[in-house]
Design goal:
Distance between the termini: 28 Å
Structural class: alpha+beta
CATH topology: Alpha-Beta Plaits
Radius of gyration: 12 Å
Largest sheet: 5 strands, mixed
Strand content: 35-45%
Mean pLDDT: 97
Number of helices: 2
CATH class: Alpha Beta
Shape: globular
Strand order of the largest sheet: 4-1-3-2-5
Number of domains: 1
């Protein structure tokens, strides 16, 4: 698979606004795999894998949602996980 994998941590108004479920909906509709999880410090961690243009589209959509307000994003690239098949909301 020609793609990218990113791990991102979002700060801002990102919990209690549907961030995880919007991420899941977008990921499933775009064919992106990975996971999303609320953190105890009020941030959200998102690990996504897919074609670069689709990953960018997902991130753009999250950043332009009327309920989500992203103040800061920390991120890094990761090696691809070839066997990953789905996107999950982790609790």
């Amino acid at each position: 698979m020609a793609g990218v994998r990113k791990k991102l941590n979002f700060r801002g108004r990102v919990q209690g606004v549907g961030f995880r479920y919007k991420a899941k909906y977008l990921a499933q509709s775009l064919g992106i795999t990975g996971w999303v999880r609320n953190e105890m410090d009020g941030t959200v961690t998102l690990e996504i894998q897919g074609r670069p243009q689709l990953v960018d589209k997902l991130l753009y959509s999250l950043n332009h949602d009327s309920f989500i307000e992203i103040d800061w994003v920390d991120g890094k690239d990761l090696p691809l996980e070839e066997d990953e098949k789905s996107f999950k909301v982790l609790l």
